[in-house]
Amino acid sequence: MSKALAREVDKRRTFGIISHPDAGKTTLTEKLLLYGGAIQMAGSVKSRKAARHATSDWMAMEQERGISVTSSVMKFEYKGHEVNLLDTPGHQDFSEDTYRVLTAVDSGLLVIDSAKGVEAQTLKLMDVCRLRNTPIVTFINKLDRDGLDPLDVMADIEEHLKIECAPLTWPIGMGQEFKGTWNIYKNELHLFSAVHEGKTQEGLVFNDVNDPRLEEYLGEYAAQLRDELELLEGAGNPFDKERYLKGEQTPVFFGSAINNFGVQEMLDAFVDLAPAPKSRPTTTREVSPYETDFSGVVFKIQANMDKNHRDRIAFMRICSGKFTRGMKVKHHRLGKDFTIANATIFMAQDRTGVEEAYAGDIIGVHNHGTIKIGDTFTTKEELKFIGIPNFSPEHFRRVQLKDPMKRKQLQKGLEQLAEEGAVQLFRPIANSDYILGAVGILQFDVIVHRLKEEYSVNALYEPCMITTARWISSEDEKVLADFKDYYRSDLAIDAEGCLAYLAPNPWKLESAQERYSKVVFSTTREIR
Ligand code: GDP
């Protein structure tokens, strides 16, 4: 291990934001980029979103996709750290990609709207983080509005997200009466002021919360703050870095993203606490980010929607070693040498001349469909990274072909789109239907559109009686055979030949699980 390599790895923080639409992810992202000096980019995050809101038709969204590639990974420097913020698409873009991005990060930032508490999408995304015990920092947003009692928001997080909360800052008042926050560990008061453009907020330092000067700044809220801090000291959880790193406890910050309040405090703590890239598992061994040989794994494919440029970008997370443009690597699934010449090294600001990347960084590799999700590239050893799986779809549709002569093209198109991760394809054992499974419903429109554009197949989709899917396995072959017999009409084979149970309703799934305790029903499946 070289010292220079270790320094590069240790500087890196690769994370994603976990939030429900409208909690403030875009606003917070802009502020974070501002601190990273990427002001131009900050503007474009907003305009991209505004453009998306203004339109609902798919064609317009498609045109935007070209732009959205650039904001898929936002890299910035902050206080000696190289921060990679991976976008977790929400709203209409919510899809399996959103889940898979979270398997490619080292930590997460949970954003909660203080008036709403834990919401549906947050629950789903946290489930994904729990698969790898991803460490989570929490930012409770919109304190400038009336919201829930902060203790209730934390109780809500603890109950629904099954993670202990340890506040590092504490809000004083809220809404019209929002006075600021108290930094519990530094004994610093940050007075609230709505600063839209400015970057820094200086804290007033008090060595003791009982300092009578607090009354000058906070009036009657000083006494309330003291009471609440006492309560927290007695009944709350002290922050424990080890427990944070294991994903058992989350440090909590309060603020208002739109007013750029509490953001820097959170970011300072974030770069300090959040883990640098860790070892990642392969089918044979763990790969340390400090190993000098290069390795990387693909976690997302984005197709170019521009008809004239039918290429795809494979998003590769570097897992070890150093990447240099033009380097020759092995593409293990195909057993071929591959020169990564035209890679995009993602940057939020225009830093020309960047030719190197390290573990935790993401590069975009242009290709024409040769690369698929889960593919591993290394300079030497044959490896296959695991932990970037397929996720059980939440919506299902049956595909109807308008022209029966195009069955072969349909099959080919669907198989390729499934490989790319755009949709999941299931073929029932009992009939010849094509069942599509997706995490976000817009994916179905995308598929129908792409079938037409790229494969000249006119298809449509219709609802079907499936609500959830589980991949099936069992060590006991006799039990598995019996299960297959019993549930034949609900079984299907996915695009990689794996057996799946497509449940018509949650109760039937439950009863199947009870009846067959020796059968494993999985919500994720490793990509082969
Ligand atoms: P996203 O959907 O999670 O990306 O959320 P946005 O960042 O687009 O924010 C959703 C809405 O909440 C927008 O209208 C924002 O202006 C607003 N918003 C974001 N942060 C704050 C905040 O701190 N206070 C208030 N009052 N509104 C906020």
TrEMBL record:
Biological process GO annotation list? regulation of translational termination
Q: Which InterPro entries match?
A: EF-G-like_DII, EFG_III/V, G_TR_CS, P-loop_NTPase, PrfC, RF3_C, RF3_dom_3_sf, RF3_GTP-bd
Q: Which UniProt keywords apply?
A: Cytoplasm, GTP-binding, Nucleotide-binding, Protein biosynthesis
A Gene Ontology molecular function term for this protein is: GTPase activity
User: Which residues are listed for GTP binding in this entry?
Assistant: 19-26, 87-91, 141-144
Q: Which PROSITE patterns match?
A: G_TR_1 (PS00301), G_TR_2 (PS51722)
- Compartments, as annotated in UniProt: Cytoplasm
CC annotations in GO? cytosol
Q: Which Gene3D superfamilies match?
A: P-loop containing nucleotide triphosphate hydrolases (3.40.50.300), Peptide chain release factor 3, domain III (3.30.70.3280)
The principal localisation class reads: cytoplasm
HAMAP family listed in its UniProt record: Rel_fac_3 (MF_00072)
PANTHER family referenced in this protein's UniProt entry, alphabetically: PEPTIDE CHAIN RELEASE FACTOR RF3
Give the family from UniProt.
Belongs to the TRAFAC class translation factor GTPase superfamily. Classic translation factor GTPase family. PrfC subfamily.
Reported function: Increases the formation of ribosomal termination complexes and stimulates activities of RF-1 and RF-2. It binds guanine nucleotides and has strong preference for UGA stop codons. It may interact directly with the ribosome. The stimulation of RF-1 and RF-2 is significantly reduced by GTP and GDP, but not by GMP.
- Its protein name is Peptide chain release factor 3
What organism is listed for this UniProt entry? Halodesulfovibrio spirochaetisodalis
Question: What does UniProt list as this organism's lineage?
Answer: Bacteria, Pseudomonadati, Thermodesulfobacteriota, Desulfovibrionia, Desulfovibrionales
Gene encoding it? Answer: prfC
